[in-house]
Amino acid sequence: MKNKNNITTVRSKFLSLVLRHSPQTIGLKLDGAGWVQTQELLVCLARAGRSMSLEELQAVVADNNKQRFAFSEDGTRIRANQGHSIPVELELTSRRPPAELYHGTATRFLDAIFREGLKRQSRHHVHLSASTETAGAVGRRHGKLALLRVDAARMAVDGHVFYCSDNGVWLTDAVPVAYLAKLET
């Protein structure tokens, strides 16, 4: 069981690289919305020495705890839900956010965040979570956890735009310092 989970994790991380950041790594080209034909992905993976069957790809997508990937309704295409560092237009519709959203980060980043706010860095958007649990899981990956509360209701009233990706991650262009508060962890 542990070996299967390790293989799935390795495959998921490689799919993140290919579908979010560097499709050219395996000779892949995404369309403007980040989609690629499922069969083309499988062929490129095999050519790159990363063979995967359709069933294995479907398992990686289904088992990903963050639901980073999605198939088109007919299953013929696949893409990453968000987190791209390459130009894509996910065609998301703006939505009214919950009153509060959360961002998990490492304590070593707090000084910069409270000086400059949350920035999207190399990605298209700042990623926010609807729960402290999810934000905590994200933040722990980066070091000693710091949880931030975002006054999303006030941001929306002040004209900031929010989107919610298919996997429930809230996205916005930036979060200025005035809307941030540190939570005790």
Automatic annotation (TrEMBL):
<keyword id="KW-0808">Transferase</keyword>
<dbReference type="InterPro" id="IPR022928">
    <property type="entry name" value="RNA_2'-PTrans_KptA"/>
</dbReference>
<dbReference type="InterPro" id="IPR042080">
    <property type="entry name" value="RNA_2'-PTrans_N"/>
</dbReference>
<protein>
    <recommendedName>
        <fullName>Probable RNA 2'-phosphotransferase</fullName>
        <ecNumber>2.7.1.-</ecNumber>
    </recommendedName>
</protein>
<comment type="similarity">
    <text>Belongs to the KptA/TPT1 family.</text>
</comment>
<dbReference type="InterPro" id="IPR002745">
    <property type="entry name" value="Ptrans_KptA/Tpt1"/>
</dbReference>
<keyword id="KW-0520">NAD</keyword>
<comment type="function">
    <text>Removes the 2'-phosphate from RNA via an intermediate in which the phosphate is ADP-ribosylated by NAD followed by a presumed transesterification to release the RNA and generate ADP-ribose 1''-2''-cyclic phosphate (APPR&gt;P). May function as an ADP-ribosylase.</text>
</comment>
<dbReference type="InterPro" id="IPR042081">
    <property type="entry name" value="RNA_2'-PTrans_C"/>
</dbReference>
<dbReference type="Pfam" id="PF01885">
    <property type="entry name" value="PTS_2-RNA"/>
</dbReference>
<dbReference type="GO" id="GO:0016740">
    <property type="term" value="F:transferase activity"/>
</dbReference>
